[in-house]
Amino acid sequence: MQLDAFQTLADPTRRRIVETLRTGELQVNDIVAQAGIHQSGVSRHLRILSEAGFVSVRPNGQRRLYSLRAEPFRHLDHWLAPYRRLWEARLDRFGAALEKRQKARRPPPKET
Amino acid sequence: MNEKVVIERTYRASVQELWDLWTTKEGFESWWGPEGFRVEVHAIEAREGGTLHYDMIADAPEQIAAMKQMNMPISHKARGRFSAFSPHTRLALTHMIDFIPGVKAYESSMAVDFVPAGDRVRMVVILSPMHDEHWTKMSTMGFTSQLTKLDKRFA
Question: In whole angstroms, how large is the CA radius of gyration of chain B?
Fold first, then answer.
């Protein structure tokens, strides 16, 4: 089953795992301890995160180390960009309107 | 997933000046709306739960032409309210989106925080892109309804 980035992160447990991995590479035990999730759940969600490209795993001796991959986050950011741009333009106009009002008020009226 | 878009700007201004741009007729009309549109405020009640009624009017010639070409009115009535209102600190604007053919009416909100720092104010706008997904849907549906109209005309 291939989930898109938003579906993948829609699950609170997976979000917690992703947040835990922000600190860097971890093995399952550490994720279990830091995220406070049962091991079986973590393994299942790590598999889903890995299939969706959020997480990569590399063997290190007997251990398997999990870390975040940048790519899906870039996709998310890319998806959000137009909304940001739309509002950036809007706030440009907000700034321009503000400046116009400030200029209209200058020089300040004399005190009576 | 409750993804938010957060945009912030810092202005060399007083909180009052920024606040006025959101909560007064003249202020709101001076900047609101997408590029190529202007707004005409009919009611703006600056209080918690206060009404915000305005017309969004295509203004720029190319925008007017675009709306006409899409067979859409150049003006539409927008209805909203101030769903949060803490003067000079925070406000939230909730719009009723009830004009999308085939989509049940729903509300869309944005929140704005004002954080003074010295002679500047940081303004933080928090948006929910879920709302805009509906807009995407709307443009698709607008287009579809347009084709339906064409069908009727030529039937």
Answer: 18
Cα–Cα–Cα angle for B142, B143, B146, rounded to 5 degrees: 90
Q: What is the enclosing helix (H) or strand (E) of B144?
A: helix B129-154
Q: What are the residues whose beta carbons fall under 8 Å from the beta carbon of A8, sequence distance 6 or more?
A: A14, A48, A49, A52, A54, A72
Within 8 A by CB and 6+ apart from A41, the residues are: A13
Query: Which amino acid belongs to residue B121?
Result: V
Closest CA to A48 of A72, A80, A25: A72
Range scoring the smallest mean pLDDT among A41-50, A55-64, A69-78, B38-47: A69-78
Domain of B99, CATH number, reads 3.30.530.20
Domain assignment of residue A61, given as a range: 5-69
Whether A112 is covered by a domain: the verdict is: no
Q: Which of B21, B34, B129 faces A94 most closely, judged by CB atoms?
A: B21
Contact A10 B7 (CB under 8 A): no
Q: What is residue B124's predicted lDDT score, i.e. its pLDDT?
A: 92
Residue B4 has pLDDT above 90, yes or no: no
Within a domain: A111? no
Please tell me whether the peptide bond between B73 and the residue prior to it is cis, using omega within 30 degrees of 0: no
pLDDT in tens, B98-140: 665 555 677 778 899 999 999 999 999 887 654 455 544 444 4
Q: Which two tokens stand for residue B40?
A: 């005409």
User: Does the global pTM surpass 0.80?
Assistant: no
Number of neighbouring beta carbons within 10 Å of residue A30:
16
Site from B2, B4, B6, B7 to mutate, A interface, most A CB atoms within 10 angstroms: B7
Q: How many domains does chain B have?
A: 1
